[in-house]
Amino acid sequence: MPAITLKPITHADIDARSLALHQAVAQKLKANPGLIEVAKVNLSRWLKTCSPRTAPVLRQWEEILSNSDITGIISIIESPSEASTQLRQSSPFCGILSNEERTAILLSTR
Questions:
Q1: What is the count of structural domains for the chain?
Q2: Are 22 and 93 in contact (CB under 8 A)?
Q3: Which one of 21, 44, 81, 107 is least enclosed by Cβ atoms within 10 Å?
């Protein structure tokens, strides 16, 4: 039986996967802006127990979610910019995509 070799996953691969996930989140937010509350609840919970190292980026998300309209939030999560890439690494949008949606994106970005 031939050996299966897998290509190592790079940071660029991880960033591309995260962008694809957030593009799907953006589509759901466009259809139902009320889903932004999921991210706010996540942030509130995480800020109570996060490490001092993680707190600044979560506070940045808190500011974005409090002071931006849905169009601005979507623009940030879909942006390929370095700043948005860094923000997506601590994204509060977990729970918006179903397991099936998430799995399909993860498999398509392998």
A1: 1
A2: yes
A3: 107
In a domain, 99, yes or no: yes
Cα separation, 51 vs 55, in Å, equals: 6
33-70 per-position pLDDT tens digit: 999 999 999 999 999 999 999 999 999 999 999 999 99
Q: What's the domain range around 21?
A: 11-108
Residue 1 inside a domain? The answer is no
User: Taking the model in full, what pTM does it have?
Assistant: 0.88
| Per-residue pLDDT tens over the stretch 64-90 | 999 999 999 999 999 999 999 999 999
